[in-house]
Amino acid sequence: MSNIVDPLVAQIAARIRSERERRRWTLAQAAEASGVSRAMINRIERAESSPTAVVLGKLAAAFEVSVSALLTPAEATGVHRVSDATEWRDPVTGYRRRQITGPRFPADIAEVRLPPGARVPYPAASLAFQREAVWVLDGRLTFHEGDVVHELDPGDSIEVDEPVACVFSNTSDAECRYAIILTRVDRP
After folding, report:
1. How many C-beta neighbours within 10 Å does residue 187 have?
2. Is the dihedral of CA 19, 25, 31, 33 positive or negative?
3. What is the pLDDT of residues 47-82, one digit of tens each?
4. At residue 143, what are phi and psi to the nearest 5 degrees?
5. Most buried one in 127, 129, 154, 175, CB count within 10 A?
6. Kindly report the CA angle at 100 between 54 and 175, in degrees rounded to 5?
7. How is domain 82-184 classified at the CATH fold level?
8. Where are the alpha helices (DSSP H) in the chain?
């Protein structure tokens, strides 16, 4: 086993540890709030494991931040060159995510590439503090908004206003590329 740590895995580890420590949560408290095991959070924080999209979604929901906030350095601002972009890859599904905006921009925009056959669920809690729009750029996306299923083609978009469990699914034989746009909202 290599001792070399992927810089993005190390960055994610530091952000998750920082978010947990900022709240003064123990690993057990973070596990209870997120539904992710204490052991898994510990491995992620030590950069021994790269989290899946599902785990990132659960942790982001517990911390009340976007998934992108966990993938982006806190100091990232200004011009974002595609040549400098860091692309995160889900180790299980092959889902790839590239952040378009920095953490200080009022909308969180990310480009996602979902391989054929991939299915990525996010809990309703991940939308408890934000609104989401999904815009399909290439391919076909099957989007589950709670119990409602939407088949989205290139150019189609959907807005999700209420917190509901969502599943991004690619049932086609070609990659699907889409943009996710998130804005923070304060709910009563």
Report:
1. 9
2. negative
3. 888 888 889 888 988 998 878 778 776 555 566 666
4. -115, 120
5. 127
6. 60
7. Jelly Rolls (2.60.120)
8. 7-22, 27-34, 38-45, 53-63, 67-71
